[in-house]
Amino acid sequence: MPDGPPGAIIVVQRGGQRRVYTAGVRQLGKRSPISVSDRMRLASTAKAFSGAVALSLVAEHRLSLNDTIAELLPWLPASWGGVTLGQALHHTSRLPELLKNRALIGYLMAHPLRRPSPKFLLHFLRNDPLRPESGYHYSNTDNFVVALMARAVTHRTYRYLLRRLVYRPLGLTRTNLPAGPGLAAPYLHGYQPDPPRGPEDVSTAISGAYSWASGGLVSTPADLNRFIRGYAGARLFGRAVQRQQLRFVAGNSEPIGPGTNSAGLAIFRYRTRCGTVYGHTGNTLGYTQFMASTLNGRRSVTASVSEQITNGSEGNRLAAFKRLRQIETNAVCLALRKG
Prior knowledge:
The protein is α+β, with helices and mostly antiparallel strands.
């Protein structure tokens, strides 16, 4: 569409049959088509990966959904001490939001290519109390806490836990968690409108360390499709833990996904006109993501576009997001179609 994202790729899989739909190009000014093996930033779909790590450790009885910040991360503010792993996974923790801290945003703007540690970033929130209002509040801080709890009980790095508990079991060979701003080629270039000039390539403008477990992963459409089929299909932690995961509260993913959204533990339920799927959305500078699957892991959808567009956008960007949400719904309907 006019002024729409430079590139888009949709993957729809029904059993062993996978269909790939693309539009646009991998990089403006070149004719390279988009491929399922192109790397891209996963944005907040990465939150499902930290959920997968934590719930796998729950299945191994190394973590409990009732474990608290005070028990596992006593260096964090005492006022946060009663927050549990389950609340962080459910976005009901009331933890202050990293991306709303002015000092942290100022640091990021001044040093976009640095590689700050998770502890360093959380230090900006040391004087921030819990939110006064209870209930669901989408939060990037939650997934920092989830991954740090996993590190605390295993004494292993988050990268190691991703490899052992997620990548290897699901055969994800092109997924990783970079610390810096770089992307290995070939990758889907991400863009940001820059009027009156053309779109600006922002693929490597910010270090992945700033979003870490809440959005720092890099993967491909093919790997993202494999992940959501295994994650929603309970291949990583079994049905007993999944039953705890699928306790939903009212709450939209960010950006909002197709249909009616409800929030589980690091997973969202999307009830569409064609049926229900489970997954996650995400948006970050240059990229917008959606992934979902049925609970048997046999029917799945991923949608990736090379621009950040959300339900909070304005003008042409909002029109593009509404169109994207329609396309996501159509893709879900194609995946769930009988026969």
